[in-house]
Fold:
Amino acid sequence: MSASLTIAPSRFRRRLRRYGLAWAGAAIVLSWLLVALLAPWISPYPPNAVDVTRRLLPPSAEHWIGTDILGRDVFSRLLHGARISLLAGFTVVLLGAAIGTTIGILAAWLRGWGEEGLMRLTDLVLCFPPIILALALAAALGIGTTNTIIAMLVVWWPKYARLARSLALVQRSQEYVEAATVLGLPQKRILFRHVLPNTFGPIAVLGTLDLGIAILTFAGLSFLGLGVVPPTAEWGSMVSEGRELVEQWWVATFPGLAILTVVIGFNFLGDGWRDWLDPKAQR
Amino acid sequence: MASYIALRLVSAVAMALFASLVIFLISNFVPGDPVLAQLGDILASDPAVVTEWRAKWGLDLPLWERYGLFLQGLMRGDLGQSIATRRPVLEDIIQFAPATVELATISFAMSLALGIPLGIAAAVWRDTWIDAVARALSLIGVSAPTFWLAFIMLAIFYGWLGWAPGPGRMDPIAFPPEGPTGFFLIDTALARDWESFRDALAHLMLPSIVLAAATLGLITRTTRAAMLDCLQQDYVRVARAKGLVERVVILRHALRNALVPVVTLGGLAYANLLTGAVMTETIFAWPGLGRYTFRSAAALDFPAIMGITLVVSATYLLVNLLVDLSYALLDPRVRR
Structure:
C-alpha cells in the first residue's frame, strides 16, 4: 500500500457535497412526511381491502407493487404504513429526548446525591441490552402501538440524559450563568431559559440521527409480532407477512425499502446538521 | 491496576444483580399474565388448574419471597426453571449460547476484517471512489433493517441463485456434531469431520453477513472519522517530515491512535450483536439465545427472561470492562 495523499478537492466542492446530502435527506424525510399526511387521499385502494380473488398479484399498472396474500394492494398499505412508522419514531424520540434531557439537566444542577442517583439510574438502564428490555416490556404490556412505544420509551431516554448532563455541566461553568446567578435570577429560570436553549443543538442532532434508529427498532418489534395489531398496515409487520414468500418477493421487499429510505433520509439530515453546527468536525 | 479491576468487577456484579431486580419487578407489575400465556384460554378458565399451576411455579408466594428464592438459587448457580421449556434456565442458556456466540464471533470478525481496512482506505483516499463506496456501504449497513436484509439475502442467495444453504445451523438431514463445545465449527474440526465442517460453515455465511452489516457500517464510519482526525495531527506531519514511508506513517503512527475509538465502539458493537441476533436468528431458524429470548418474551416466560437479562447484562458489563482495560494497551497515557 504505497499511499500518497491525493490533493483534496476544493473546499467549495466538499462543502457542496456535504450539504448536498443534507438537502437530499431533508427532501426524503419531507416526502415521507407528506405521504404519511396524505395517505388516505393518495392511496389507490383502501389499505385493508381484502380481495382473495386478487391474491399475490405481481406488480402491474393496476397494483404498482403487487398485492399481498390477502389480495390487499401493497402500495396503498405502504403509504399508510408511513403514518405509523413516522408517528412511532417521532413520539419515541421527542418524549425520550424530553424525559432524558430533563433528567440530565437536573442531575447536572443538583450535584451530590441527586446527581449520583439519577446518573446511576441512567447507567442501569444503559446496561440492559435495549432490545431485550423492550421485548420483555412489549410482551408483558401486550401487543399494540401505544404499548410498544411505552416499552421503547423506557429504554430510550438514557442517552439523552447522559448527553444533556455533560452539556449542562459545560454550560454551568460558563460566565453567563455566573452572571445570571449574581444578578439574582431564580435557579429555575437560569436552568430553563438560559442553560436549556444552549444545549439544544447537539440534542437535536442526536434526535435526528436517533429517529432512524427508533423507526428501525419499532419496525423490528413489529416484525417480531409485538408492534401493531393486525391488520394495521405497518412496514415491519408487512415484511413479516411476506417473509416466507420468496417467489412473491414484492410483498416483503418494498416495505423494507421504505424503511431503508426513511432511515437514510434521517441519517443524511442529522449528519448535515451536525457538520453545520460544528464545522470543525471532519466527516 | 489489580484493585481497579477488582472494583470494576464488584460494581459489575452489583449492576447485574440490580438489573435482575428491575426485570423481576417489571415482570410482576405489568398486566401480562403468564398463566394465560402458558395455559391458553380453555385451561385458564378452570380456577383449580390455575391455582395448582400458580402454586407449582411459586407464583402464589409474596413478591419479596420469590425474589429471595431467585437470589438463593443464583448462589447455587440455579437460575430457576423456564415455564415454557420446563427445563432449568441455565441449562437452556448453556445449550443455546454457543450457537449465538459462534454466529456473533464470525460476524464480528467479518466486520472488523472488512470495516477497519475500508475505513482506513476511505480516510487516506478521501473523496475518491473508494471513499464513496465505503460511505455508501456503511450507510446502507446502519440503515437497512436486519430482518429485511435477512429476507433479501435468503431470497437471492438461497431461493434464487441457490448458492447458500437454507436456514438452520446444518443440513436438516445431517447429524449435528456431538462435540464438547457446542460450537459446530470447533466440534466438527475436532472430530475431523470435514464434510460437516463445510456444512456448518456454509450455513454460517448468510446469517453472519446479515448480522455483520450494521456493525460493519459503524466500524467503517468510526475508523474513517478517527483516521481523518489523526492524519491531521502534528505528529503525522512530523513523521512525514522525517521522511518516513507513507505506509509507516499511516499504519504505525496514525492507525494506532485512531484505533482507540474503534475499540470502544467495537466492544459495544460485539455486545450489541445480540440485539441483531434476535432478528437474525428468528429468520434463519438459528437455535441460539436470540430466538430463545424472543420465544421467552412472547410466552411471558419470566424466569427465562430474567436469566437471559442477567447473563446478557453481565456480558455487557464484562465487555465494557475489557474495553476499558484494552485502552491501557493501546494508549500508554492511560497506563500511568
Chain A touches chain B through 53 residues (CB under 8 Å).
